[in-house]
Amino acid sequence: IDLSARLRRAIEADALEVHYQPQYNVEDGRLLGAEALLRWTDPELGPISPGRFIPLAEQTGLIVELGGWVLRRVIEQGHRWRAAGYPPIRLAVNVSALQFQRVPIDQQVGQLLEDFEFPADQLELEITESALMADPSRARRILQRLRERGVHFAIDDFGTGYSSMAQLKRFPVDTLKIDKSFVDGLAEDDAAGSADDRSIARSIVGLGHGLGLTVLAEGVETAEQLAVLRELGCDHYQGFYASRPVPTLEFEALLTSAPGTP
Ligand code: G
Ligand code: G
Ligand code: MN
Ligand code: NA
Fold it and tell me: Which one of the record's GO molecular function terms can you name (predicted)?
């Protein structure tokens, strides 16, 4: 059977998994939230990366079910953590561009928040610039509706797209995520591009703060990168330096032992 039939089967059988990558405050190392990241292991083919199956789900229309599945799974998990008395954190869920175009996520998310009595302000949706720019007025309406309920929005992979400041300030977003590609070279002395990466990161922090937004750096792998981000005034970060995306139980251990950088 083909890969998309396997994926459909996996969704129906609840055989996908969500891993959580913690997000921290740069200044004091406090655990603030986590990005939910899908993981799929096919019984015969082994692990298949979301970089492969998300585009497939988009092509086949399965993204509707898949997107709904991951939102439900994360909100349900968030509800459980709340009920169990874990400290409140914000959970971030990726919404792909085609998913955003095809699924009325305002309705989908609104319903799930009600079903699980989940506080809207503990949910963040990550969207790319290109998803917003495909149909800016529709995007604005959808974001507005969810923002009114309290849902947060982050712009994922920021800096790799082409949105202008003028466009950006018209969307009710809360966070800019500095793309990993600009974080990679942040701390290398004299390496080609490292001065550029620092300039870009500095500009994004300035732009974000100028618009009243939080700025988060992703893909932070070293203490040196984190030190540069602290110098630049970047607010939050995630990355292998602190933690990889981890399964639910491991994340619970992090929640229990919070706060603190590793
Ligand atoms: O976790 P990893 O780095 O392998 O993810 C690869 C890509 O897949 C990233 O771009 C990430 O945003 C995307 N991705 C992971 N989980 C989800 C998900 O639940 N929904 C969507 N739309 N994309 C996801
Ligand atoms: O596109 P998006 O930003 O959602 O993708 C997040 C992806 O980046 C996930 O697949 C996650 O596993 C990966 N990731 C997170 N932190 C790091 C890191 O420090 N280094 C590397 N190489 N990948 C990371
Ligand atoms: Mn993301
Ligand atoms: Na990203």
Answer: cyclic-guanylate-specific phosphodiesterase activity
**Ligand closest to CA 70:** 1
Nearest to 110 by CA among 136, 72, 156: 72
Return the pLDDT at 161: 81
Ramachandran bin of 191, using left for φ above 0, alpha for ψ from -120 to 50, beta for the remaining angles: beta
C-alpha of residue 25 to centroid of ligand 1, in Å: 22
* Residue 49 Cα: closest atom of ligand 2: 10
pLDDT at 1: 82
What pLDDT was estimated at residue 250? Answer: 97
Return the best residue to mutate from 49, 240, 251 for the ligand 2 pocket (most ligand atoms within 8 A of CB).
240
Q: What is the pLDDT of residue 188?
A: 84
Residues 6+ apart with CB under 8 A from 2: none
Domain 3-179+213-221+235-257 fold is TIM Barrel (3.20.20)
The whole model's pTM is what?
Answer: 0.96
Sequence ranges of the domains in the chain: 3-179+213-221+235-257
Does the beta carbon of 99 sit less than 6 angstroms from any atom of ligand 1? yes
Ranges of residues in the chain whose predicted pLDDT is under 70: 190-192, 259-262
Question: Distance (Å, rounded) from C-alpha 164 to C-alpha 80?
Answer: 40
Distance between CA atoms of residues 245 and 248, nearest Å: 10
The complex's ipTM works out to 0.97
Half-sphere exposure of 118 (CA within 13 A, CB side): 28
